[in-house]
Design brief:
By secondary structure, the protein is of the alpha/beta class. It has 2 domains: 4-117 and 178-291 and 467-487, Glycogen Phosphorylase B (Rossmann fold, 3-Layer(aba) Sandwich); 132-167 and 293-462, 3-Layer(aba) Sandwich (Rossmann fold). 40% of the residues lie in helices and 14% in strands.
Length: 488
């Protein structure tokens, strides 16, 4: 019998590449292959498009895996509704049914916004802006794959149908990604109360909590059960806010790290933050790099033929990700090179500013903002790309470059990223050095031998960075955590 783990997370499975949801999804699949039984407790987000659950429940009901007994006699399982209500892709549902044999999910029906993305509809900015120049930025290239083009046009149609709001005479961007305010803290406390009630009577060996939103729940259940708590740090308040941290969130993170028996960080960069900024004992911190799931069929797709080169930015459009440096580098590239399009795929609180920045630089017709992408559209946008750039200011790890390499796309990454600690067959630059970034972009686009070397060597390298390897290290952390509690 393998170890039994109670895992706490805010998103599962993911709808976007990269991020916390992808990490939880990949790790739990790999733990499943190692015969580790995982019960995953998660909340329900208010937007169906962000719902990351296998089963959802209404108040008073907790879903359980058909092969397992209910967690408590007083709680009867009841689904909130059909799968279509949560917009889970068919392929994800099928994979969950067939491969996650040891993953049980408990869902809390709470109206919590997705913590790392905007609370708006997917198409990022409700662009009913009057400016023709800004509207021109949204025009999709004629050579784009018809299916992707249709999907993106559908997203934009949703955005333009939203009524205007705000007191400044125009649409207003209400983003939550950089403002972790009272709502999320209140929801994390509600989540903790739910977890304590839901897991009564369950039998497990270790508690594994992902990021600050689940730390209060993890601490409460560790006190209640005496089981060892492992906290998994994917990002810190210093990554999200720089030096202007939210003190309440910092306090939650610090309590979680100090209250845990072991701390897992996704990179040495994040480990050093935990030790130096949060005062965590370095002896109890384990670095476990994220992995990537490669689909050979997706990687073998023929690239879409097009006359222009495509440089891709893929991720949240927030201060942490450095989108302004990507736009600034794009301007420098376009000053010396024709036939290049820059695609910004994602949403976030800096989206409108980036659109205005591109327009102000006079490169509006060369920069495409796609909005939020999900499912197969992600594969298609990687299929369009000749180069992927991650200019992050502070990136604890960064899964998206691994996924780009898995799609045989050359990669340029910021040196201030955890993933730069383990990647060799990529180009690296300082996020602030836009001249160096632009020079590297031009070099890859102009020199096919360099592009082929990065593509082929990168694909070979990324095949060795797996969730199975990460799961083996996490399981070793569980053993150390259990031994530490037993030693007390």
């Amino acid at each position: 019998m393998g170890r039994r783990v109670l895992m706490l997370g805010w998103e599962f499975p993911p709808f976007i590449s990269g991020g916390l949801g992808t990490a939880c999804y990949g790790l739990t699949k790999a733990l499943d292959r190692r015969n580790v039984d995982v019960t995953f407790v998660l909340p329900k987000h208010v937007q169906a498009s962000y719902a990351s659950h296998v089963n959802l429940v209404s108040p008073g009901g907790v879903p359980v895996h058909p092969s397992l007994p209910p967690p408590a006699a007083a709680v009867q399982p009841r689904l909130a509704g059909p799968a279509s209500e949560v917009a889970l892709p068919t392929e994800v549902l099928e994979e969950l049914r067939t491969t996650l044999r040891r993953i049980t999910t408990l869902g809390l029906p709470m109206e919590a916004p997705a913590p790392y993305s905007s609370s708006l509809p997917p198409a990022m900015v409700r662009l009913t802006l009057e400016s023709a120049q800004v509207r021109r930025l949204l025009r999709l290239p004629e050579h784009m794959d018809p299916a992707l083009r249709t999907a993106l046009m559908g997203e934009l149609a949703v955005a333009e149908s939203v009524p205007e709001s705000g007191g400044r005479g125009g649409p207003e961007l209400h983003a939550r990604s950089s403002d972790y305010g009272g709502d999320l803290i209140a929801e994390s406390e509600r989540y903790a109360r739910f977890c304590v009630a839901a897991v009564r009577g369950m039998d497990f060996d270790v508690i594994h909590a992902h990021d600050w939103l689940t730390y209060p729940a993890g601490l409460a259940m560790a006190r209640m059960t005496g089981k060892p708590l492992v906290v998994h740090v994917h990002s810190t308040e210093f990554d999200r806010s720089g030096e202007h941290v939210n003190q309440s969130l910092y306090n939650i993170e610090r309590r979680g790290m100090h209250g845990a028996v072991r701390v897992i960080t996704v990179s040495m960069l994040t480990r050093n933050l935990c030790v130096n900024r949060y005062g965590v004992n370095p002896d109890k911190v384990d670095v476990v790099y994220n992995g990537v799931d490669l689909d050979p069929r997706a990687a073998g797709l023929e690239p879409i033929r097009q006359s222009e080169k495509v440089v891709l930015y893929f991720g949240r459009i927030t201060m942490q990700k450095g989108p302004e440096y990507f736009i600034a580098a794009a301007k420098r590239v376009l000053d010396v090179m024709d036939g290049v399009k820059f695609v910004v795929a994602g949403n976030g609180d800096q989206a409108q500013r980036m659109i205005e920045m591109a327009a102000g630089m006079g490169i509006g017709n060369k920069v495409l903002f796609t909005g939020f992408l999900r499912g197969k559209d992600i594969q298609k946008v990687f299929g369009l790309a000749d180069l992927y750039v991650m200019p992050s200011v502070s990136e604890p790890f960064g899964i998206a470059p691994l996924e780009a390499m898995g799609h045989k796309v050359p990669v340029i990454i910021s040196r201030t990223s955890g993933v730069s600690e383990i990647l060799t067959n990529v180009l690296k630059c300082d996020f602030w050095d836009v001249d160096d970034m632009a020079n590297k972009i031009v070099a890859v686009l102009r020199h096919p031998p360099l592009q082929r070397t990065l593509r082929d060597s990168g694909y070979f390298e990324v095949r060795g960075i797996t969730w199975d390897g990460a799961a083996a290290k996490v399981e070793a952390v569980y053993e150390r955590a259990a031994a530490a509690v037993k030693g007390r």
